[in-house]
Amino acid sequence: MHQQPTPSYAPDDERPPWNRREWIPQDGAVTTARQTIDVPPPPTARGPNLSASRARPSTPTPGRGRRSTAATPVRTPQTGRPAPELPPTHAALVCVALPGLAISGEGQLDGRGLDGFYRGGRRLLARCQVRVAGREPLAVQARMTSADSARFVGTLRVSPSAGPDPDVVVERFRRADGTERITLRNAAARPLRLPVEVALGTDLAELASIACGRAGPELPATVHDSGLRWATAGAAASVIADPPPSDALASAGLLRWELELPPGGTAAVELRVRLDGAGPLRPAGHATTGPLAPARATGDDLRVTPLLDTAIADLQALLLRDAAHPADIHLAAGAPWRCGLVPAEALAAARMALPLGTRLAAGTLRTLARTQLPEGNPRAGLIPGPRRDAGPFLPPACTGTEATLLFPVLLAEARRWGLPEQETRRLLPAAERCLTWLRTTAGAGPYLPDPQPGGPARCDTQAHAYRAALLGADLLDAFDRPGATELREWAQALRAAFRADFWVEDRGGGRPAVALAPDGRPVPHLGSTVVHLLDTGLLGSGRLAPGLLDAVQTEHLARLLGTPAMDAGWGLRGLGAKEAGHNPFGHRTGAVRVHDTALAVAGLAAAGYEKEASGLLRGLLDAAEHFGHRLPDMFAGEQRFSGSAPLPHPAACRPAATAAASAIMMLTALAGVRPDTPAGTVTLCPVRSAPLGELGLTGLRVAGSSFAVRVSRLGLAMVEEAADGLQLGV
Q1: Do the domains 296-728 and 93-275 match in fold?
Q2: Cα gap 626→667, rounded to integer Å
Q3: Homologous superfamily, domain 93-275
Q4: Is the dihedral of CA 536, 538, 543, 545 positive or negative?
Q5: 211, 9 in Cβ contact below 8 A?
Q6: pTM of the predicted protein model
Q7: To the nearest 10°, the Cα dihedral for 585, 586, 587, 593?
Q8: Hey, how many other C-beta atoms are within 10 angstroms of the C-beta on 487?
């Protein structure tokens, strides 16, 4: 995992071992009647041990049947316990409408791994297996239809004279809100009478327990209304069927129907999964007036349309409400592992999504301001966050530091994009406390060290701190608050020291160190965290803040990011391929980081290194196409070659907030949209090489109104729609 998840999920040291699936061949039977083909189920079909008409992977439900022949897991030398691993998600279809999830394989929910319907981190239904005429349909297609729904199609041959053609089509629509609609269509020339069984079961386990391999056995069911119900000491859930089944067997967990279908006719059954004591699921992203504008992208590169559409849909699916303050909406980090608030990533994603409006930024800032450590605490002003693995060369990083430094940056840039002055003023005290924490923690030194005693000074932390100081000073000046001069002086001292201390000379022209050790020695390994040096932040009048590197150092960094050692052909590796400890699947040691790649694209383009930016952009667009335009937060950094495809990471979040928001940032960076709402201007600095040809963006939000811009094939930008009174800056 990338960092320790929220409490409802598995901690880093409790990941479950992999399970190896068994292949169990099974069969069914078919009989006929004179006119109507009457297909009874085989007499041996029972509950959880339903047979199948074909060989398919099957793992017994935990606590039932024979055990899987799992390989002996690797044991950790410290504890002797099996090394924990997360169940794989790379092949799963993850329907998201938080707090609801539906995680599926090819169609049947078999109760293996993460299969099931979830709400608030608890699995309400683990198993939902459909049998028609005693057999499982042959799965022919499984695909996402939207961020919160998936469609599964299976076929059956039940007529003796049907030949090779299926005569029954089974279509299932599964939604994250806990509903599934099963539709049978008769493709035969004669009417069919089909017995249909749905086998249901659950463990009501928390996702953390499932991830750790401690889900436990299925619970006994009871008949409830027109379905089944399961209960444990902490929760209860039920499945209600419409139409009601003709038979409900609690002991076997079965619902049965006899459906009659005329030629070409259909019949449907809808299942509704509910948590007892909770009302219908109302996802924050399904509100009539959501915080994200419905922007659209068009252009010569046809991939930009589905990329932006999918990104916005994924962000809407990941929206959560603050339980105590329902008007405040923020983003969860990603599904399925990180469906809670991760402060640094919520702020980063809200910042990248500013072109879709400022409401998400405002809700995120208000939510996190309430978590800020109060006066009297030794670290007053800090916004707490979990620790994150930083790879083999550095200790884990405190994401609370990153979140605290991002807070004033997001507030300052949201004001430029159109956050009302009154709202900005209300949030200003929290931003001031963040800036006070920065100066107090840095003390008399030029660097912001790690919070633990004797910690290193990280390169990306200095970039965050420098940007926070400059944009924070700009914000304080705008509201006549004290402290701006002190922040700028500290930032200037940081920049002078950084250019000397963090630059490692070598035969290639040098590189930025990833950190300074406590004794002042540079840690020279090249990783993707250096891209934060290119993300300097937006000041007034369309100006970007100056960076920590000088012009020559920036050029060397740009060239390094464009080399095969860093650019895998699909995006930017987390650690260079030539570095010791490189691992293409290592989430901090070589996997492609989508967020870092997008930061590199935007930063390189803004600095004038369009060739390197365009190469990374095209690679990431190519990767997105292989992932159905729904980018995970990371994937393997294997070098691209002719005919290859990006390798998914089995533990990646997909969707992920920062990955989805990265698409918005990259596309708007191509147009170079830099607003300054307080000054009533918007400046356009497009990428002159127009790497994607003509590009049009409509439905963006600047100064609270709709904004549209078009970039021609010659790299010229033109505003097509804007707020009244908004002037084009120079």
Answers
A1: no
A2: 19
A3: Glycoside hydrolase, family 65, N-terminal domain (2.70.98.40)
A4: negative
A5: yes
A6: 0.88
A7: -60
A8: 23
Q: Which helix (H) or strand (E) holds 466?
A: helix 459-478
84: pLDDT confidence band, cut at 50, 70 and 90?
low
Report the run of H or E that residue 430 belongs to, with start and end.
helix 421-442
* Structure token pair of residue 222: 């009871």
N-terminal to C-terminal alpha carbon distance within the chain: 45
Domain ranges of the chain: 93-275, 296-728
pLDDT over 90 for what percent of the chain?
A: 76
- Helices 459-478 + 484-501 axis angle, to 10: 160
DSSP percent split of the chain into helix, strand, coil, nearest 5: 30, 25, 45
Measured distance CA(218)–CA(69) in Å, rounded: 20
Please give the residue that has the higher pLDDT: either 64 or 286.
286
Confidence band for 34, pLDDT divided at 50, 70 and 90: very low
Per-residue pLDDT, 35:
39
Closest by CA position to 86, among listed 317, 320, 314, 335:
335
Q: What angle do CA 390, 562, 462 make, to 5 degrees?
A: 40
Mean pLDDT of 619-626: 97
Using CA atoms, how far apart are residues 129 and 53, in angstroms rounded to an integer? 13
The pLDDT value recorded for residue 162 is 64
Q: Element (H or E) spanning 719, and its range?
A: strand 717-721
In angstroms, rounded to a whole number, what is the distance separating the alpha carbons of residues 403 and 101?
Answer: 27
Q: Which long-range contacts (CB under 8 A, 24 or more apart) does 156-165 make?
A: 156/53, 156/132, 158/30, 158/37, 158/39, 158/132, 158/133, 158/188, 158/192, 158/194, 159/32, 159/37, 159/188, 159/190, 159/192, 160/30, 160/32, 162/188
Q: Taking the mean position of all CA atoms in its chain, how far away is CA 13?
A: 22
Beta strand pairing status for 37-38 and 192-201? parallel
**What would the pLDDT profile of 407-431 be if each residue is shown by its tens digit?**
999 999 999 999 999 999 999 999 9
Q: Please name the helix (run of DSSP H) or strand (run of DSSP E) that holds residue 669, with its range, or none.
A: helix 657-671
Mean pLDDT score of the chain: 87
Q: What angle do CA 444, 546, 675 make, to 5 degrees?
A: 125
Has domain 296-728 been given CATH number 3.40.50.620? no
- Pairwise CA distance, residues 196 & 256, whole Å: 6
